[in-house]
Please model this.
Amino acid sequence: MTTTLKKLITLLRDGEFHSGEQLGKSLGLTRSGIWKLIQQFPAWDIFVESITNKGYRIPQGLTLLEKEKILPFLTHHPLPQKIDIQIFDTLPSTNDYLLNIAKEKTDKCVICLAEKQTSGKGRRGRTWTSPFAKNIYLSILWHFPKDACELSGLSLAISLAVVETLKIYGIKHPVGLKWPNDVLWNNQKLAGILVELSGETHSICSSVIGVGLNVNMSNTKGEPIPAEWADVQMLSDNPVNRNELTGVLLNELIKTLTVFQNQGFSAFIEKWKSFDLVAGKQVSVLTPTAVFQGIGRGIDERGLFLLEDETGALKSFSSGEVSVRLHPNPLL
Ligand code: BTN
Model:
């Protein structure tokens, strides 16, 4: 995104009308220069209303992420690692960006946020829809003095940090977790987590923890979001402030990573059970090669999923390529 385009978005983010002439004066451009820039807005998923004699406006306005508004929320001390926060207008994927940094063998913890992702990644090769300035797309590069096998419950612990964030932010609606780490409200997906390990050297395991939290999924024209999705805005009575929510989320994530680093998954297991939406339910477990049917029996001490089959035997699954489907009708 060019600096001039960013400045124009910044002027229009208040949701009020601004005349082409006024905008031109502020940016040192002609009215037609402004018009040309406005033509680029749809490519950034921004809907602009244009009315003769009034000018341009972004209905409802938009909030842009600002480091100075996020940093005051990071109150968790002491921080176990040096932290660097980077915010981008657009990236292919915040996870991929940090996986590349990890290759350079930095020992810093890097936090990366993007307003838009052009190739946002979900679990199991899916894409993560990431329109500009609507939701939260963030990744953290964190170095654990642990073996990779000790990180199996990490993404479950991270999903609890998201649940805690929503509570702190004042969301009263009950949210739950579907193993391994889908945060759901009313069976609709509110957030997803993608943990990728970038390699182990000298018993340090570097991991990239990606979180996508839907804040305002409604598309640019305000049409309703697809039924399988939920966003924080639909659970909140007031307009959601993405900077505040990002600040609370980052603070909870850093807290969680610190506890996980010191105590491992055992510190989270009881809490995770209290949000488990699958325990006791009829489910299918899909692996790349087979489908297993049975009843969800929670998780073990490492965070592996437990399935009881029709013979009463327990089978455990690690998250990798596995997906759990809840049967809407328990008789199916
Ligand atoms: C899932 O539920 O399938 C996981 C979704 C993870 C999405 C986040 S958005 C920030 C980070 N960057 C990515 O490319 N993916 C994760």
Observations:
- The helical segments are 3-12, 20-27, 31-38, 67-70, 94-103, 154-168, 242-263, 269-275.
- Residues 92 and 119 are 5 Å apart (CA to CA).
- The mean pLDDT is 90.
